[in-house]
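Ticket closed. Logging final result for Catalase.
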Amino acid sequence: MSEKKPLIPGTPGSGTPSVDEPTEPREPLPPKSDQRSPALRTATGEPVKGAETARGQKGEYLTTAQGARLYDTDHSLKAGKRGPTLLQDHHLREKITHFDHERIPERVVHARGAAAHGVFRGYGAAEPISKAAFLGKDVETPVFVRFSTVLGSRGSADAVRDTRGFATKFYTSEGTFDLVGNNIPVFFIQDGIKFPDIIHAGKPHPDREIPQAQSAHDTFWDFVSLHTEATAHTLWNMSDRGIPRSYRMMEGFGVNTFRMINADGESTLVKFHWKPKLGVHSLVWEEAQIINGMDPDFHRRDLADAIEAGAYPQWELGIQAFPDTPDQMFDGIDLLDPTKIVPEELAPVQPIGVMTLTANPTNFFAETEQVAFHPGHLVPGIDVTDDPLLQARLFSYLDTQISRLGGPNFGQIPINRPHTEVNDMLRDGMHQTGVHPGVAPYRPNSLDGGCPFLAGADTSAFVEVPVPMPESTKLRGAPASYDDHFSQARLFYASLTDIERAHVAQAYTFELGKCYEQAIKERTLRVLAEIDTGLCAEVAAGLGLPAPEPTVAHEAPPIVSPALSQVGAEWPVDGRIIGIVADETSDLAEVAAAVKTIDAGGMVPLVIGPHGGELGSGKEAVPVSRTFLTMRSVEFDAILLAASPSDPRLLVLVSEAFRHCKAIGGWPAGRDLLVGAGISADAPGIVVADETEGLLDGMTTLMRSHRVWERTV
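Final structure:
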């Protein structure tokens, strides 16, 4: 039996191409082993037997869209060899016309995203408060998850400072449920009518269309400094949460408050949380700047590579549960205000299921780009509340999908099809792919035997919660509890460690330093003074401005929620990437053993060599994954030194990794690289050992804390 080789991600295809152009026709290649397509179902949700590739291209020969085989696709039909081109060339017109229409309107927000298939398994813990079938014990439900940035276009970079979308489509037995949230639990605004304002302010300036995918400009800070209900979200965005290390290490939140309803019709208010098994971790600012130039696809590549390598990302779904009281308050916090959180210390997050992402999409456009989420896609057991942001989202998402995807039948696109029966009596419209029998798409009818019939609560019908509506006067306004714009920002800032607070101050200083208008800087400093005078003074000093005093003196220290800090705990190292610097002078047997041990530990070893191909030959040959030219420190979580080649790029690698507080280790052969980079072997987070097992044990222990923050003290 052959020994299992470490699975290194990045295999480009499911077959091995020849160097020369092939001369024998063959069927299109199947998907790679890490890829999955949308379930094979009809437009109305009926399962279809067949291969997963049934929707893919077929046949050995190139054809027109109507199936006619073609003998030439490199030359247009001309009047003589020099033209002109003839209008009758139907293949030219079909090919060019389709190309001209390949792109659909990108999302106004969340345009840049990445996605994956997976499965959700319920724990059964939610059954006392929700009758949703997919939350039952050990019930497994297919899911499709899309992560995204908010402000940038599809062509922007991944590692920008921005809020991230975390949208999950559950294909449940009772219909599709979409949980559409963010990686930040509070939002900029309290009422959805202001959503166009915050997005217009955050998007590039309309005169120059710059800056792309950034909030470091005047219009954004003009809005949030005038509109102080945005303060808490802005502070979260200026923290390390604004630049996640990976989608796999990113928390998710439903943001709005929802309802859960049990079998007895009892209602409970809930907030949804996604807790990553690997912990919540971030990039440091310099890493993000390097990444956006070196590899703008960093996050989508990381997600796809982890799945391909078998390091399947996992999140636990949890809920904070609150009594559904008439005032919808909890411990003085208005549960309908989306700019507020309830600290986990006051209402613990209760795990109700686990999600594992197990497959990459087969086709980015068909799946990641065309997937359509909507918070109104609900199932029995889950309902909405009167949160004014959520109420507007219920309209906006549906309207957006109709515009982007060419009409009301976007639910028939394969990635959006429910995994249960659909009989909606909706007919026709653009891109209708269902062929519906019957003559009576209306109710009541007798011509179709009265079908389809209405369901009752006893047959899993979705029934809205009968919420009492108190008599009131129509008005445009908000309750008094919405007027508190600063206590939650103080709570968040006070809960951070010293290193995290330093990063917040640096972020504000950078962002405001990119603004041109002096008044905007001064106004934002007034906002910071209401959060923390120390933060305000530090940012003011960086801007060369005086620090204003707060308008209200806060004698009592703010509440602290340790759950809001990303620093201080230990986490699994699954999927962590270790770069191993080696050359022909290295002990290749030790390198090969390290590669094997790292892979067996659920991590990803990438050998960095002076050239591509292999180091050594024969049985001792070690495949090279990165060269000194193609690597950069930011793609590795840790560095292992098996040699000290005289190459200035390696000094940059080691010095950056040290500066970014990453674990660095090596055998004695790599010591000269540490010396050349001016790093002491006794510095925090440095492991040098003769013996491979002890070396890797020390490295693994360091990586469990994500970074060696002691270096910043």
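The mean pLDDT is 93. No further action required.
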